[in-house]
User: Fold these one by one.
Assistant:
Number 1:
Amino acid sequence: MVIVGEAPGAEEVTAKEGFVGTAGRCLQKACRVAGVDWATVGRSNLVKRRPFQDSNDFKKAFYETKEEPIYTPTGKLSKRTTKTTLWTAEMEKWHDWLAAELQRYNPNLIVAAGNEALTAITGLSGITNYRGSVVEARGAFTRSNGHLFKVLATYHPSYIVQGGIHEFFILAQDLRKAKREAEFPEVRREPWGEMIQPSLNEVIGYLEWLEHRTDKKWTLDVETRAGTLACFGMATLADDGMIDAICVPIQTTTGAYWSPEDECAIWEALHAAASANPNLCNQNIEYDIYYLLRYGIEPSGVWMDTMLAHSLLYPEFPKGLDFLCSFYLDDVVYYKGEGRNWGAGDRDEELWKYNVKDAVFTLRVVEEIDKQLKQRGLYEFYHSASVLRM
């Protein structure tokens, strides 16, 4: 792997080597915790000089703001202008230099440390969101065979030493993932099967199968629009080893999805499945159960609330599903930005696909949390807690 930061600091300029200063020592320690051999790690920076001798203001050194004209719909030049922030010509050259450098190294994995490296290599922005995501590079960042490089986003170690010390073990966890991903060059995603617009028979068949397979764990996640239930998604592990997921629409942007009789049949089948199968899993079930109880759906048991189980393992870490995916799963790209308070202007299909992702990834997180509960000697403690059995 090659770790790419932003720009060299004073110690790195003197040593002519990347990540040897205070931030570099933090990164070395995180590598030791993660089991990554520092001697085998390539190190580079997006730019090869310090931003300024007396300052490390990256934006000031390598970005420029230009005023551009605004034209009216009729083609006339407006009196107003718009300001656009762009890379300087020097920055463009450093970008191309880095692309050529990485092509010479030809690593299986690039670790983009910090937002500047992430944006330059992938075009994505928001390191807090994309930290832990494995994505493809863009543009000139291609391997010697012409395929795009694989990139893992993580925090820059300078963020850790400048006050984010509580994030150190998150950085170490990302580097554990990097160690696994560096074994092969391609991006690998775990597939699943899904039904987005199922027929009534498909919904009933799915729920009846789940009702009679009480050995199976299952997830249920609801999505709301304007305070009402829009759809619910479910996922379970099929006998062939692949996750099977389904999204059941309830209300669309134009009205009810089912006839009253068909919707009643769905709620009756879900009630039977939830009453028979006690292995429901959910992320923050307090939210979803509020809507399910309105329809008379009262689960007979809860195997895991991933938010609570994760809090038992790591009480100091964030608890949202976006963080859990980035922390426990290797192949999930940040997608929670797709979710919001869905309104009438949003396409129903986008909501349904988002709903399925929540259900699928929650189920996968359950398995990883159970592994860590066993490793930490907390499995029996968590699953024997009476508050989890309803």
Number 2:
Amino acid sequence: MPLIPTQVPGTNTAQRVQNPRLVHAIVLLVASSMSVLVTAILGPSLPAMQGHFRDVPGADYMVPLTMTAPMLMMAALSVFAGELADRFGRKRLLVASTALYAVVGTAPMYLDSLMAIIASRFALGAAEAVLMTVSTTMIGDYYDDARRDRYMSLQTTVAASSAFIFNTLGGVIAEQGWRAPYAVFGASILLAVMMAVYLWEPRSRASMSAAQIAEDAAAFRPGLLGFICLLAVALGIVFLTVPVHFGYLLGAIGVTSPSQIGLAYGVNSLGVIAGTLAFGWVLTRRTSVAGQLACGAFVAAAGFFVIKGASSYGMLTAAGLVNGVGCGILLPSMVTWTMRTLPLSRRGLGTGAFQSCLFLGMFVNPILVVGIEKQLGGGRATAVGVVGLVLVALAVVALLAGLVRRAR
């Protein structure tokens, strides 16, 4: 299974027409990292929100869905957003979705019904599906080869750094009430303005001739993309386990302060940052994709196992750090692998398919983990330990696949 496909005609045309500068990288990296707001800024406020809606039937399921409802829309719509970006171009879709993101993202500040809040979160997910898919695709359009891999790795680094800041701020802001963190979504209006001013429309299928599309599409491997997307579902489940459930895990050992919970979330984000840096500076040049995935999976699973047995704030926070390192390796490994396999004419579609499957895994995470908890009756930590066992199995498969490939 080749990791770096043969260069297809037309891939670098956009880069020859325009020379992206630092401001373009900043805008695209920030845009592609906006999805961290969905989980990072809200995690510390979930227990207080659940207390506010405690009389609503099924609130123990519905309140976590306010964090993950956007994931369902992103799972359902990202692939279509990518296809639209391939057919009709990128920039207008990106600017419009970012402006909409600000409007619906701040809606829970004044909505009183839990169902209405969940509905607004679904709308946010529709905007985020376009924003995340198109901005990631445009990184692939603006940069190529080694620069593209570096920026794809930086994408996760920026997202994790933002998550650290927002997790820490989320705890402080949550002290003002569970509605307060939603105000942060309004900042995306400024980002939409910067997109409109600085970004240009890159080359895509919309500007290619029929002959160019046919030649370019010959490099498309739908079977490989399908396999990557299957792994992306598992990655989504793993990646969101700590962001969704950390507050509940901390509450189970007696930690209820939003500031302390926010700090623990921030430490987890520091682990993700460390993992992305390990990927970008060490693993990407020294190991195959199979090795990268095996390494990340083993480290993330180790964090889950420590979480299962943790009985103190320090131990649980340290486990979150370890798990973050593993997740920080896994995500850029998958993203860069995906981008390398996509020809220009299918770049939006393939990126959207990957994002759809990633966010499908994120959406089902609370349903799956809470379901395992209720089935086993051992608490949330026991359910997290089961996720760790599955991750070890996947790590072993990746390791064996790498060894077989090397032997061949």
Number 3:
Amino acid sequence: MRPSRPHVGLIGLDRWQGGVVYTHNLVRALSHLPAVERPHITLFCRNSTDLFKEVTSLADHVVVFQSLLDRVTEGTRFEVLGQRIHAGLGAALWREAAPELAASARRARVETVFPVSVAYTRLLPNAIAWIPDLQHCFLPEFFSQLARAARDKSFHALLRDSNRHLVFSSRCVLDDARRVYGTPLAQSHILRFATVPLPSWFQDPAPSVAKYKLPSSYIILCNQFWIHKDHLTAFKAVANLKSEGLIVHLVCTGPTQDNRDPLFFAKLTGKIKELGIEPQVHILGMIPRVDQVCLIRASKAVLQPSKFEGWSTVLEDARALGKPVIASDFPVHVEQDVPGSSFFRMGDAEDCARVMVRFLKTEEVLPYSPDLHEARIVEFARNFMEIVNAVLSGPSRYITENESQLQRSKY
């Protein structure tokens, strides 16, 4: 008989900052469940636990796994390439993209593992797949032909596997998958994550504002400086307002490197200079999470101009902190429906400027209830556990195609 507390393996997502935050939020959310509902958690970290130190104490066990190529390329510019080569070799030889992870999961006796993004998981126990977005289909210009082909092959295999449970980050992503690849045969689930705040996030934000020498009034944009995040529209909006005699300060946090275009950040900073708004744009890069949160709380509003998201972390942060949002009208942003959201036409700097003006003239105070947000966190955790229980409830490792079709009708 299976223990009443499922043993769940969670993979630390370490390739981008949004993935790190996603892992933190999921582990923290599960800790908010009543004890009788809480799973037994093993957190699997590639190479080290450095990115997940804040949540390791919430897991029952923490396992570090590492391949030979990881050891050779760790800390070099070839690290991600080495991981991809290793995954390709594992898939070709054993139909398992992460054999070290699979071996660790089996030794730890976990019952299911989340999340995986490839179809080659033959040795992983009850691997739950995850498709956060289909950006490569709708913004193909931001991907190489090889990267697009690899994603297409992997996603198609996941979607057409009737023995697979597959998680989408939003209704929008599921609808996109249906349009691009047809009706999924995999059993589909939608898991919308929530930000889980810490008590330290609600300290006086004034010292953080002073630490970074910021003005008293500003709008904040917290995104990686990646092409599709569309910082340029925000910068043009600031320039448009300056030309009308309105000075807006924009604070930007996030990594400044985009591997798809190593020169992209330099191009952006050049554009800031060309627009004549250098004194108004404050680029802080990567800063401690607690500082970022304090700066969000001290801001007039959170700006999210992105052209593509699976489920926007910064919008969930704004929700958790009770801050108003200025967002592009990308469907996922609309689906998130954060209280206090004001939308502008995606990529339209003039419309973005129009919305920003509202926050310069008024102090937006939103109704905020910690209890309501706590309920949202618990709902996120319970939704995840519903998926886990669906995976583990069958008599065998996988469900049948007919069962998958019945489950899809719920969505």
Number 4:
Amino acid sequence: MRSRVRLAILVAASVLVAGTVAWAAGDSGGSWLASGSGGERRESTTTTSAPTTTAPTTTTTTAPPLPATEGLRLQKVRTIVATEQTGPLSPKSIVASGTGVVYAQNMIYNHSVTAFDADGEFVATIPDTVDLARFGITGFPPGTVQGGPVELAFSADRTKAYTSNYSMYGPGFGHEGDDSCSPSSGIDPSFVYRIDVATHRIDQVIQVGSVPKYVATTPDGRYVLVTNWCTYDLSVIDVAAGREVQRLPMGEYPRGIAVSPDSQRAYVAIMGGREIMAVDLASFGVTPFADAGAGPRHIVMSPDGAFLYATLNKDGRIAKIDARTGAVVATVATGSAPRSMDISVDGQSLYVVNYESSTVSKVTTADMAEVQELATAHHPIGITYDQGTGRVWVACYGGEIEIFEER
């Protein structure tokens, strides 16, 4: 398979010692690391010892370019389910780095992120338990707390990953998140974790608003952007400073984020209404940009920056929007309650999960035609297009992760 060839490019991203299992401990509480052949878990008795590491081997293998996607069609090639090795799976979202690592964010009560390689083999489980004081966070009682991973974005260089936490649980936290809320609800603030992709360990914790959901990183590597569902705003995290530097009002229930290829502008979907807001990343000015349709949830941008595409959760459609004018130039119906979406590396195809229909749709962007709608497991909620392999991964609330190839 072409994915196995592509995986050789950056096998160092998830290199493991053959036949071993290591517990990588640290401030984050560590991560379970396992070889593809499995093994028995061992838990460290300390949170300060450094893990044994093996230097990655550099490879110069070059993968052939991916074929144009418009004429290809999806076929399911694998279903991943929870095992004793992976632990529980309840993926809210799934994101591929394009360099050999795929992270599934296990919503709320499983308190973990699960790492796979590009072929779907288990690599690590990353617990969401942290000691805030060890990361320089003050104003909270001592002790460890847990989060609830929702969404994730890789840094521009793919060496780090940022995941949002729906709520925090533990000392100092007593008013957990809720999907029905407002800035006056008094819901606890939450945090974004930064994960080191080479070690699969949390190495930074950053405070944001209440019930942070979508996360995006700017192509220039300068900012991480986070939509805070319950405080109706957008957190701007300065990567170099490692902290939030702006909190921008957005409107009721902000969710999806897309960033222009030149990192000058961000677009935020306001799911509680119809608007997409534009954010000037130089001045941090916020202006209404487009009336996209009812309940815009997820947005992606074409690789050339010419168009935005938004899933309209209430309308059951995808809207194509001119990125210069904000005009909706076309829409297409997919299944019921289209939610997460991704775009192919060539910009020719969109892939969207239809939550209530339990299907995944492929839409060609040139004519905005739904060319496929395939059955998935119950309630597909997350989707990612792996730019390294061309595979499409679908995360379903019941715990299944389905991998599709285009042929």
